[in-house]
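Bumping my old thread because nobody answered last time. Still need a sequence for this structure:
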């Protein structure tokens, strides 16, 4: 077995795991034991997917795969770390790993956009610009929240949902483009249909939670959040 095939197996196993367990984590009680268990499995599976992709990409001189791997990882990382920043009061409380990863993702996504512009009108130009823009917006939003934390009700809750579901959309995008037989569709649609469907669905879901908050329901009523220092990444 070659080194590339070894990491390819890791990539496939972790990707399939993330693809399967994410709907389970979304279906169960938010913050309950089952949600936390499957959410962690999903997060570490996405770490495995991204790590394997970062190893494989240079072997085939695939810069696009490298950039998308960082983009996908950051969505899961941002959603996961949001749980540890829910009481953030000052930029001094932000961990170094958060600063490092948010800046790294911002740089990589900026490069992804530049490459996309250069590749236009090729389909991968469009795909690169869409993914890069989403990633850059997320990094910019998180940087602003680090520098000027605002005590907005449920902010961490929506950051968590947005990051984790965004990572799942990225996983479905890659799975669809590589494994599903959608050759009758344009290449850009093969990659972007999960984004076109998933992002509006995610925003609708968030809107439903905001409606519940506006009626007086608290986050604790809808999610049992148990995060302790011993569980910190």
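Sorry it took so long. Here it is:
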């Amino acid at each position: 077995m070659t080194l590339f095939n070894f990491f390819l197996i890791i990539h496939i196993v972790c990707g399939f795991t993330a693809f399967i367990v994410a709907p389970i984590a979304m279906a169960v009680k938010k913050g309950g034991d089952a949600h936390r268990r499957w959410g962690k499995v999903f997060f570490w599976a996405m770490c495995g997917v991204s790590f394997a992709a970062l190893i494989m990409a240079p072997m085939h001189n695939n810069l696009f795969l490298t950039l998308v791997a960082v983009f996908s990882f950051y969505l899961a990382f941002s959603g996961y770390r949001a749980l540890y920043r829910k009481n953030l009061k000052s930029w001094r409380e932000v961990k170094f790993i958060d600063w490092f990863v948010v800046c790294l993702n911002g740089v990589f996504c900026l490069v992804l956009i530049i490459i996309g512009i250069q590749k236009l009108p090729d389909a991968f130009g469009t795909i690169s610009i869409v993914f890069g823009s989403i990633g850059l917006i997320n990094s910019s939003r998180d940087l602003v929240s680090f520098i000027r934390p605002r005590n907005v009700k449920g902010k961490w809750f929506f950051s968590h949902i947005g990051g984790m579901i965004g990572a799942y959309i990225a996983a479905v995008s890659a799975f669809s483009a590589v494994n599903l037989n959608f050759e009758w569709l344009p290449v850009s649609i093969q990659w972007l249909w999960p984004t076109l469907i998933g992002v509006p669905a995610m925003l609708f879901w968030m809107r439903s939670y905001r409606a519940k908050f506006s009626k007086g329901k608290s986050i604790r009523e809808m999610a049992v959040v148990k995060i302790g220092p011993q569980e910190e990444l």
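The mean pLDDT is 85. Let me know if any region looks off to you.
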